[in-house]
Amino acid sequence: MIIRKAFYWWLFPSAVVLPVWLLVGWAAFHSGSGWSFLGLLVLCPILFVALLAIGGIIVARRSVRESRAVSWYDAGVLAGWNASIIAFGFFPAGVTGWLAVLGVLFFLGAFWLGLWELMTELRGRVERTFAAYESAARPQQVPQPESPIVDDAEVIIIEERRRED
Fold first, then answer.
1. CA–CA separation, 71 and 63 (whole Å)
2. Among 50, 64, 84, 85, which lies 20 to 30 A Cα-Cα from 130?
3. 103-146 tens-digit pLDDT
4. How far apart are CA 1 and CA 13, in angstroms?
């Protein structure tokens, strides 16, 4: 539970920390051209928005907000995605492209997993809501009287006729 809670609290700070780590890592470990830095300046805002979007999708689930912990599936995918971003920030020679592809794949996995979990939870909540409305709208059963009804009462019948003049 501690790991799941840690990922919950890490969701939104990671949107700032990880893009900044890429910039710091480029300055510390990369010995390339300025074009790669320009590419990194384009990548960092995209990464920021992607991390915020995934965080928003995950936090949109009521179960996550109430327990203040992500699911184990979320924790696994987020751990892989964060690890690939951190590893990319070291700019290892010859592996940087593979780490970028791995990061994109983890993003897509986190996105679709988050949407699947959100839709599954919403479907259950909507079904419970409709069941509650159905039971509330169903007519109540009228209790039957304990003694049988005796039909011996006098009845007065009034017939109406119209004259045709």
1. 9
2. 64
3. 999 999 999 999 999 999 999 999 999 999 888 888 777 666 67
4. 20
Tokens of 155: 């009845």
Domain assignment present for 146: no
Q: Are 118 and 54 in contact (CB under 8 A)?
A: no
Query: Would 53 be classed as within a structural domain?
Result: yes
- Tally of domains within the chain: 1
Q: What is the pLDDT of residues 62-100, one digit of tens each?
A: 999 999 999 999 999 999 999 999 999 999 888 989 999
Residue numbers of the domain that contains 123: 2-137
Is the Cα torsion angle 95, 97, 99, 101 positive or negative in sign?
negative
Residue with token string 């419970």: 128
